[in-house]
Amino acid sequence: MSASLGEKAVSRCNLFKSPPYSEEAEGLTRRFLTSAHRAALDTLTGWMETAGMRARLDAAGTLIGRYEGTGPRTLLIGSHIDSVRDGGAYDGALGVMLGLGVVEELARQGKRLPFSIEILAFGDEEGSRFHASMVGSRYISGTLKDDPTSLKDESGVTMGEAMRAFGLDPATLRTPPHRDDVFLYFEPHIEQGPVLEAENLPVGIVTGIAAQTRLSVTLSGMANHAGTTPMGLRRDALAAAAEAVLLVERIASTAQIVGTVGAIAVKPGVGNVIPGECLFSVDLRAPLAETRDAAERKFRDGLVEICARRGIGLQVKRVQQLAPCLCDETAQTVLADAIASLGHRPFTLASGAGHDAMSMAALCPVTMLFIRCRAGVSHNPAEHVEMADVDAAAHVMLGFLERLAA
Ligand SMILES: [Zn+2]
Hints:
The chain is 35% helix and 23% strand. By secondary structure, the protein is of the alpha+beta class. It has two domains: 2-209 and 324-405, Zn peptidases (Aminopeptidase, 3-Layer(aba) Sandwich); 211-322, Alpha-Beta Plaits, CATH 3.30.70.
């Protein structure tokens, strides 16, 4: 029995790597409200019902499978079922499959716990289609403040239109559910970093998730002829952006922070025209909100200076700001006990990546279990986990549930 839980979760993730569960045959792409998303939900629903769960789709496209307990309270176990473009099989999906596998095991043993368990498969954590992330968990936790339904995907389809085509009513997004029965949200997830591998450990307890800010910067210069405009008379938006990118790197290298410019677009984007406009993203993350905010101020000040010196127009929009999230300390202790009783060293680490747990923290205490992944590679088809590690995670989860029930 002990190998089967890990094996089942891994093989289900692998099944979900290809069509119809992926939009593309090569490399996994499963974005919010696509036919690949629908296929995943249909199959998951079948598995949930076979395990004796009641499955339903909520207003934000989150599939929720409920396994009744004997008491009024509910434990949520979840992660996301969507992926980035050309992503890996385990990011998100593994957490869902592990939750499902653990409930199947309880059902197999005929066990009911003093609390109900709901397995959540969030449809949009990555924001890879509409560039609004964590829509599912923000809806449930009542933190979906800005209405995302008018956001468009790359073919001009709004989220609202896609929701209607999926059988969802965009208007109901405005009314979050009232969940006063929930006492904890538990998210198992691959680490997406190299720490557990370096520690030679299958799993780790997450202490918290870094504070994040995403900026969208537009620099406006003057497009002009690359041959006839003297260097001193140019207002080159891309040259200014180049300075800004290095500024982000410099600021992030001097503080407890990571900073990235991951997307950049140049207009008109023609070889013999001086760039007239440049749009780029800035991603800043730190364990503490103050560190992150200080870095953002430093960047904005530096950018104003760069643009003034170069005669460049400047617009900075903050497109996302996520508070740091601390994982529940009691749950961490219980997890540590479950891990130790299986013969592994309890080890704690912080998460630099964002997770649904961040938004869920507005609803209830949250806890996360990280699973080692090879070389820390994620958001990449090369993402890999060892079956034995997944098996260890499943047994840690069962031990955790047992302790919560006691
Ligand atoms: Zn993820």
